[in-house]
User: Fold this.
Amino acid sequence: MDIYQENILDHHRNPRNWKLLDPYDFHASDENPLCGDTLEITLRVDENDRVVAVGWDGHGCAISQAAASMLGEEIIGKTLDEIKQLDKDVVLDLIGIPLSVSRVKCALLSLKVLKSAVYNLESQQ
Ligand code: FES
Assistant:
């Protein structure tokens, strides 16, 4: 098994930040329409809109769970503006192995939810 596969399995078995925050500043949930698996993300930010805590929960395959775990670690310390700039390549680089089209949807579910969390709250402010 290569290092990327080991990393995916590790994040799947020991997901980081796998607990929703309460209270939180940002929240969103969504599903992968192909399989119905769901993911929910909460964020807390400081006065400079920098992420200080991430919590997520969800049900899904190893790729979707590992991607959520990796992405959660990746965004701690980033500003909301920086999160808005993240694109799918960030997640695919974290996963690090070639994925089929349907598996790419699994990998990108957490990014989709993260983006809707960040944009939703701004529209309520
Ligand atoms: Fe549902 Fe991957 S099979 S998220």
